[in-house]
Amino acid sequence: MAAAKLHISDLHYTYAGDRGPGVTAIENVHLSLASEDFVSLIGPSGCGKSTLFNLIAGLLVPDAGVVMLDGTSIVGRPGSVAYMMQRDLLLPWRTVLDNLVLGPELAGKPLAEARDRARNLLHRFGLAGFEHAYPAALSGGMRQRAALLRTILCERSVILLDEPFGALDALTRASMHEWLLGIQREFHRTMILITHDPDEAVYLSHRVYVATARPMRIGGIVDIDLPPDRQREVTLTPAFAEHKRQVLALLHEPAAAGRRAS
Amino acid sequence: MAARGPGLPRLGARAKNVAAPLALMLLIVAAWEILVRALGVDSYILPPPSDVVAAIYLERALIFRHLRVTLFEIGAGYLLACAVGFVLSVVIVYSKAFRRGVLPLIVASQTIPVIAIAPILVIWFGYNDIPRIIITALVAFFPLTVSFVTGLESLEPELINFFRSLNASPLQIFLKLRLPAALPNIFAGLKVASTLAVIGATIGEWVGASAGLGYLMAQDTQQINTTRVFAALVVLGVCGIVFFASVSLLQRLFMPWVYGHMRLPWRRRTELSVAVAKPAA
Shortest CB distance from A154 goes to which of B158, B166, B256? Predict the structure, then answer.
């Protein structure tokens, strides 16, 4: 593989306990992403996936390990990658447009320029006509699209997506998937998606990392061998089913092993 | 004209909201007037409303001279309470040690009856505005501080994490996140304090002053000039209501995401309300 866009190796993180030893959340995690890669991280809920994202985003500092972006360490340096959290976290007191330019605004970049860029993308993100509305007037899907546009406008090459579609209904979610694939190609971003939906992981990704729970390790990797410009119909093919089977097998393996051991 | 369509029913609803208490008040005043006259109650015990209105009009020069003094105390005391409350709440929110040390003292200060320390303040600062401004502030600052603190802490930790992920500075987190998120609570405190400031200034004047509506009322009570006591009371009450309403108006102006943009006569309908109206179409 060529020089990695984002390279993570030997990552360890332990939450400090009040008394006694802390809880190990992340153990020996390796991830490597090429530029414009789309990988998913799937695992049981509460397995430490969000902790991993907080480490990559610089909000937490690992006990050991490397996080390199374009060959430079970004350990403990917030703002190096863009991070879209589970909830849309739109600020209710700002209009949609003012929410969208929050990243450039906090970075001290020229606001007028950022607003122009946001305005030009409103249509692509299904928000045309809503730039002066408050978030309360938006539907769930629109809020997520606004949150993603805000993340895109942070102008970071790597985007972390923490279960962005978890709260949406199945139909909205399916349409958001196709749209997200288009966005990723159009804006040349490298994306890591946290999910616990195997269909979502296989449909969107070039590669799926399957995580084990407590402490979190990478239990297996499934390379997704589907065309990059895939359509919804691909989910009905035998190849898709086979990939999904592999992911599910890896997901259930540690649990089965645990049962055998007891 | 189509633009006024959606505005009209809301205006009607608001008129109803105002009409109900107004009608009730008129009813009470009318009953008061009729009963006092029918039963022949002496005016030093309970003057009829018409006499009170007449007193306000006839003695307007005197009443408004005293009102000016009281209004100044209310304004200065209120601003002092806001400044102290704001600074205290920010320090309480950002410093655990300060919170542990000072918050109990602030609560304790509220158990001391203001009426008891008012004379001491007069001894310290003399017969001028300062003790009365302090008393006004003392009465008003507590609910202010409490609601400021509640507001500044009402933030979800996720939002702070989100701002940190954007590499926001602590000052940016305060100005662009904590402060706007606290506005609903801040205005709740400002509203409660606006009524308390009127009470505080009156108490202050009652205890020791040479001017002001509270002073006038204390004098008139001793001279059993009940009609003028009521006249001062009504003027003071109207001021309190106007003060409260002004703060409410400020709240509407500062929080358009809750109340919508007000259709003020000098602000033309903009593309903004069109955008909000669209989802229905």
Answer: B166
